[in-house]
Amino acid sequence: NAGVTQTPKFQVLKTGQSMTLQCAQDMNHEYMSWYRQDPGMGLRLIHYSVGAGITDQGEVPNGYNVSRSTTEDFPLRLLSAAPSQTSVYFCASSYHRGGAKDTQYFGPGTRLTVL
Amino acid sequence: LAKTTQPISMDSYEGQEVNITCSHNNIATNDYITWYQQFPSQGPRFIIQGYKTKVTNEVASLFIPADRKSSTLSLPRVSLSDTAVYYCLVGDRNYQLIWGAGTKLIIKP
Predict the structure, then answer these.
(1) Residue B84 sits in a domain of what CATH number?
(2) Is B56 inside a domain boundary?
(3) Is B4 among the domain residues?
(4) CA–CA dist A81, A15 (Å, integer)
(5) Residue B27 lies inside a defined structural domain of this protein
(6) A42-51, pLDDT tens digit by residue?
(7) A43 contacts chain B (CB < 8 A)
(8) Do A99 and B36 count as a contact with CB atoms less than 8 A apart?
(9) B42: which chain A residues are within 8 Å (Cβ-Cβ)?
């Protein structure tokens, strides 16, 4: 199993540009989520999904869109990039949404810089 | 609202035992408490989890008192490779995940 994969690893955008961060998992996990991690800070939840066709907002959803058309894929779209979105983005998945007892598997992250 | 508190940073020396405590309140009564480790430029990875009392695996121990208002991650005989950020994770009554802010552990030779 490849686990959770994310592309790209690095990205530089100009203010106002849009882009999609890709996330895929091959573990047949129901629950997938996106986090951002700013320097010296913890993880903040952007959006999550409990299954194909079902998404919901997390703590910091503004400026981001998600969709979940398949169990495997959960892309994150930046609609109009802003410097405040400069961060490292992590995708995670777990078997289902059962709280902390469900092990979260993280991807390697995408480091995004918005100029 | 569930909330977690853990120290921002700690340092220790190789060969020592390190204990990191996370305080948490209003957590789901039937959920576990889980700890993750994160190295630079990587995503967090699972270390250990427990419900109450003591759990031990090949890398760590986890102590959870009966009131479950805190948990202590214990790393025995640390080495330089244990330098990382450690996060506690709990769930609230709505299965929302509540991450601690992370404890940056630095191990010195």
Answers:
(1) 2.60.40.10
(2) yes
(3) no
(4) 5
(5) yes
(6) 899 999 999 9
(7) yes
(8) no
(9) 106, 108-109
Signed CA dihedral, A102, B46, A59, B52: sign only: positive
Residue A40 predicted with pLDDT over 80: no
Look up residue B48 and give its amino acid: I
Domain count, chain B: 1
CA–CA dist A30, A35 (Å, integer): 17
Mean pLDDT of chain B: 95
Q: How confident is the model at residue B2 (pLDDT cuts 50, 70, 90)?
A: confident
Instruction: For residue B52, give its domain range.
Output: 9-108
Phi-psi region of B59 (alpha: psi -120 to 50; beta: other; left: phi over 0): alpha
Which residues of chain A lie closer than 8 angstroms to B44, CB-CB? 43, 90, 104, 106
- Is residue B3 in a domain? no
Residue with structure tokens 């959006």? A47
Q: What is the pLDDT of residues A62-84, one digit of tens each?
A: 999 999 999 999 999 999 999 99
Instruction: Please give the pLDDT value at position A96.
Output: 86
Cα B82 to Cα B33: distance, rounded to the nearest angstrom: 21
Q: Does A60 touch chain B (CB under 8 A)?
A: no
Long-range contacts of B48-55 (CB under 8 A, 24+ apart): B48/B73, B49/A100, B49/A101, B49/A103
